[in-house]
Design goal:
Length: about 130
């Protein structure tokens, strides 16, 4: 049977405030500096925000930052399971390239997607479309 007794009280995380207060009054200066008191932002209802609200706001800030950047991806390929230099597991690397979509991207590029051709090569290959 699911017990909902004190459910709201348990999930308000008010003990976190007590922990922060203790750390703000620590004897070590460096510790106090980590926990400089901030003005407590009030929510629309006037109460102190919960951990869930703080998490949601933090996630929204992260998403806003991500949307303002240009994403670049680096694919790391693990050459062997033994973590030894100069050892190359051809089957393992091929599987990783296939799963990451690298082989498909190479196939598309080879089939004539013209963004990677130098102009003279592109012209020779596609000039018949101009005529």
């Amino acid at each position: 049977e699911y017990d909902t007794t004190y459910f709201l009280e348990k999930n308000r995380n008010m003990s976190l405030t007590e922990y922060i207060s203790i750390l703000q009054n620590c004897k070590k200066n460096w510790m106090r500096e980590l926990f400089v008191p901030k003005s407590k932002p009030k929510s629309d209802t006037g109460s102190v925000p919960t951990i869930a609200t703080q998490f949601k706001d933090s996630l929204q800030l992260l998403m806003d930052t991500i949307h303002q950047t240009e994403a670049n991806y680096i694919r790391c390929i693990k050459p062997n399971n033994n973590k030894k230099p100069l050892e190359f597991g051809q089957r393992q690397v091929l599987d990783q390239l296939r799963c990451n979509g690298v082989l498909e991207a190479i196939r598309i590029a080879r089939d004539g997607f013209p963004t990677r051709y130098l102009y003279p090569t592109f012209w020779v290959r596609f000039k018949m479309l101009y005529d």
